[in-house]
Amino acid sequence: MTLSTMFLTMLPGMLRTIAIFVLTLVFSLPLGMVVMMLRKSRIGIVQILTKIFIAVMRGTPLMLQLLVWYFGPYYLFRMPIGGYRFTAIILGFSLNYAAYFAEIYRAGIEAIPVGQYEAADVLGYSKAQTFFKIILPQVIKTILPAVTNEVITLVKDTSLAFALAYSEVFSIAKQISSSQTSFMPFLIAGVFYFVANYAVAFGMEAVEQMFKYYD
Questions:
Q1: 98 Cβ neighbours under 8 A, 6+ residues apart
Q2: What's the pTM value of the predicted model, to 2 decimals?
Q3: Non-local CB neighbours of 70 within 8 Å, separated by 6+ positions
Q4: DSSP state, 165?
Q5: So what's the pLDDT on residue 136?
Q6: Given this model, what pLDDT does residue 116 score?
Q7: Which of 84, 111, 146, 174 has its CA 20 to 30 A from that of 17?
Q8: What is the number of other CB atoms lying within 10 angstroms of the CB of residue 176?
Q9: What domains appear along the chain, each with residue ranges and CATH number?
């Protein structure tokens, strides 16, 4: 099998990997904000349950969570899971990363001095105006490095989808390498992950530059 043929064979897997990455970010970034707000809730039971959720998501392997989300409905409720694989992958990734993003958001918000809120109140800003016009831009600037690290980790973690026999780029690379007794598919996959991470890092650095005016 030639190099170009290998690449074309792996291309659908690359597109599936990108789909996992994009959809996970689309769901986990806003969901992380919701989890963070529940984590800071003044209702005791809500705060405790949210802490437990975060602890479980961060304290157990993502691969195990994917297996639970995929096989759980069948073992618990005897639900058919034939066409459920991709949904389970997105669900598992999104909830896992939402827990991490929630803690990043919380750290960013708690890093803002109380005086910022007091000054906004003196100037007559509403709570919504204070958050979106004063607090949020500073929080984004503060948490961008941590978010960038998590997003880069996500690119590499997409390979864990192979645990559910989903044909993303890493799974296809393993199959081709085994059938062709060649190391080249792994090199192609490695280049793909490197380029993807470089693109993420470049994009996040551009976003950081947008917030330089807060220095």
A1: 27, 28, 31, 32, 34, 35, 57
A2: 0.89
A3: 81, 84, 85, 88, 89, 92, 164
A4: T
A5: 81
A6: 80
A7: 146
A8: 21
A9: 3-214 (1.10.3720.10)
Q: Which residue has the tokens 């392997």?
A: 61
Q: Could you give the CA distance from residue 45 to residue 18 in angstroms, rounded to a whole number?
A: 37
Q: Quote the pLDDT of residue 80.
A: 76
**Cα 82 to Cα 63: distance, rounded to the nearest angstrom:** 19
Q: Give CA–CA dist 210/141, Å, rounded.
A: 9
Judging by beta carbons within 10 Å of its beta carbon (0-12, 13-18, 19+), is residue 205 exposed, middle or buried?
A: exposed
Alpha-carbon distances, residue 68 vs 21, 163, 165, 211 (angstroms): 20, 11, 14, 40
Provide the pLDDT for residue 213. Answer: 58
- In this prediction, residue 135 carries a pLDDT of 81
d(CA 89, CA 53): 18
Closest CA to 27 of 101, 82, 86: 101
Residue 175: alpha-carbon gap to chain centroid: 26
Put residue 78 in one of left, alpha, beta given phi > 0 → left and psi -120 to 50 → alpha: left
Q: Which three-class secondary structure state does DSSP give residue 181?
A: coil
* Confidence (pLDDT) at 103: 95
User: Which residues of the chain register pLDDT less than 70?
Assistant: 212-215
- On the CB side of 144, CA atoms within 13 Å amount to 19
Tokens 């529940």 sit on residue: 38
CA proximity to 93, closest of 34, 33, 189, 29: 29
